[in-house]
Amino acid sequence: MEGQWQQMNLSEPFIRRPVATSLLMAAVAFVGIAVFPFLPVASLPQIDFPTIQVTASLAGASAETMAVSVATPLERQLSQIPGITQLTSLSTVGATQVVIQFDLSRNIDSAAQDVQSAISIAGKTLPLAMTLPPTYRKVNPADPPILILGARSATLPLTRINEYLDSFLAQQIGQMPGVAQAQIGGDRRPSIRIQVDPARLAALGLTLEEIRPAIVNATTATPKGMLNTAEVGFTIAANDQILEAELFNDVILAYRNGGPIRVRDVGQAVAEASNRNLAGYQNNELGIILNISKQPGANVIDTVDQIKARLPQLTANLPPAMTVQTIFDRTDVIRASVHDVEFTLVLTIGVVVLVVLLFLRNLWATIIPGITIPLALLGSLGAMYMLNFSLNNLSLMALTIAIGFV
Q1: Where does a domain end: 122, 142, 162?
Q2: Residues 111-137: pLDDT tens digits?
Q3: Burial of 292 (0-12, 13-18, 19+ CB in 10 A)
Q4: d(CA 187, CA 195)
Q5: Number of folded domains in the chain?
Q6: Over the stretch 201-217, which tens digit does the pLDDT of each residue have?
């Protein structure tokens, strides 16, 4: 019995059913048009590197001391976490930063738990003088800030500006959709510094180590105790924390010759920033910077537009002498580059249709690619939405090249 091979034609079912084909094409076009506004927009494809940054500080320590006493114990424990591809550390005066990058298949949440456990274990070998334990946060080195705001004032001190940004503006922006975090740059957190004249101390027979405990104990939040009677118990509540620099001048440091030695006798208390080595400049003028980063997969353009739309409302509650302005907007470059690639994409479609018209010189042969190419493009947008892809320069260029080959 002689067999006969029947050639399969993929287009035949669609040609035999023109109504169903038209409805299917309309559905593909509708899906592409509907999902286009919801596609994330970025300059490059979104790649979320599982990266965690550990920060530790020790006031007054040199870079060598930070590297030996802080960075080394942390690295020794962090390096035992599985899935690490890169571990780097940077030690400066009074601060150490350890960046841990994990394999792309590693879950960032479970990695953060391992980092927290390693920090707890390493805490037993860290210097006792560290007032704050090391902290960590999730970062993405491939995702720089999308918006940088600058705040300054001609009359308000930088410590006051830092307080307004940190306690109000940064928190409000951080709660907006699409925003991952709003981080202060050029940190000028307020603090009280005791400036002591060593010559006066030496004349009174005192040293810095002798007066340090007196200064520390002068402003502590500790229980004051209780008074109990046969029927009622009273808890003693008193606030002995000193919040103003002027009050520190009356703190008693020691007693000499039957009289008290106060801070004003050997120096003075001043209100300054907690770290005088940090600064944020805006057009060569000191100010506070607010770096805003987006969440993974968020539409960078929509996120920045929402922040700018709400910024006048948020800054209305700030002091009039304080100005907040945009220093850097990454969407300007993204908008321009994506717009150029989109224009090239549309131009490529027009060139392809024109080439078909010039070579075939047939109206129907020209109409068919004029319909199928945009339809294929809309279908690609629907597939990109389902696969969590974004509209970026590489994906749009790939579509342009594909149309050019057609």
Answers
A1: 142
A2: 888 999 999 898 888 888 787 788 888
A3: buried
A4: 21
A5: 4
A6: 888 888 888 888 888 78
